[in-house]
Specification:
With 246 residues, the protein is of the alpha/beta class. The protein is 42% helix and 21% strand. The protein is elongated. The strands form two sheets. A five-stranded parallel beta sheet has the order 2-1-3-4-5, sandwiched between helices. A five-stranded parallel beta sheet has the order 7-6-8-9-10, with helices on both faces. Helix 3 packs parallel to helix 4 and helix 7 runs parallel beside helix 8. The chain folds into two domains: 112 residues, Response regulator (Rossmann fold, 3-Layer(aba) Sandwich); 117 residues, Rossmann fold (3-Layer(aba) Sandwich), CATH 3.40.50.
């Protein structure tokens, strides 16, 4: 499976050699030569994995990694170093970095890390508008997610109770069961699945947030920027509720 990869290293020759190696193997690769430039790219695009040098001019690799986690909590970063910087490496790994590649490393080690980058999980999209549900599938697939679709609240409930669903995208208004009813029934069943609600109606949003059994999740207003959805999924699956948009 091809990956979107970001390489950050102030050693341009080393960075460009990694870019060449991975590009020849079909991956989409971009390079940055400072932490600040890496943050700019990471904010603008989504990457499956980042290979980042620990020692960078200005913002070091660990500081850059912390910025990535603020942008996308599920950021996947493999540190690289040719120096003894154990304290910095320990800080990065303690906060979720995948590990460290010691320079000079073999091409096989680099490729092994890419092979071990797993898909980000299964998203269940529940919406009675088939066009909307289908429009989300390529966006989510591009960012490494597998997608299931449900067209009614009852179908969503049945699929969500099966193993393997990592996140729910629930339309507030669906036939048979509303999105809120699905969410509450899952809670009653002891199924705690990260959930993002969507709606095209401001009144539904207000009712869901202020009703007798208010939801404790953010709500995205249709139409929304796809990046808002990707960020909301990352935040929800990292354990924090997504912020409301719109």
């Amino acid at each position: 499976m091809n990956r979107r990869v970001l390489v950050i290293d102030d050693d341009r020759d080393h960075a460009e050699s990694i870019v060449d190696i991975l590009t020849m193997r079909g991956h989409q690769v971009e390079a940055a030569f400072s932490g600040e430039a890496g943050v700019k790219l990471f904010r603008e695009e989504d990457f499956d994995i980042v290979f980042m040098d620990v020692k960078l001019p200005g913002m070091n690799g660990v500081e850059t990694f912390f910025e990535f986690k603020k942008i996308r909590p599920d950021a996947r970063v493999m540190m690289m170093t040719g120096y003894s910087v154990e304290e910095l490496i320990s800080q990065a790994i303690a906060n979720g970095a995948l590990g460290v590649l010691r320079k000079p490393f073999a091409i096989g080690d680099l490729l092994r890390v890419l092979d071990e980058v797993k898909p980000r999980g299964l998203i269940l999209v529940a919406d009675d508008d088939p066009d909307f549900a289908e429009s989300l599938q390529p966006i989510l697939a591009e960012h490494g997610y597998s997608v299931e679709v449900a067209s009614t609240g009852q179908e969503a409930l049945e699929k969500a109770t099966q193993a393997g669903v990592n996140c729910l995208i629930l339309d507030l208004s669906m036939p048979l069961l509303t999105g809120v009813e699905v969410y509450l029934k899952l809670k009653e069943l002891g199924k705690s699945i990260p959930t993002i609600f969507v709606t095209g109606f401001p009144g539904e949003k207000t009712a869901a947030l202020t009703g007798p059994r208010p939801v404790d999740r953010g709500i995205l207003m249709k139409p929304f920027d796809p990046q808002d959805l990707i960020h909301a999924i990352a935040a929800a699956t990292a354990g924090s509720p997504p912020a409301a948009h719109g």
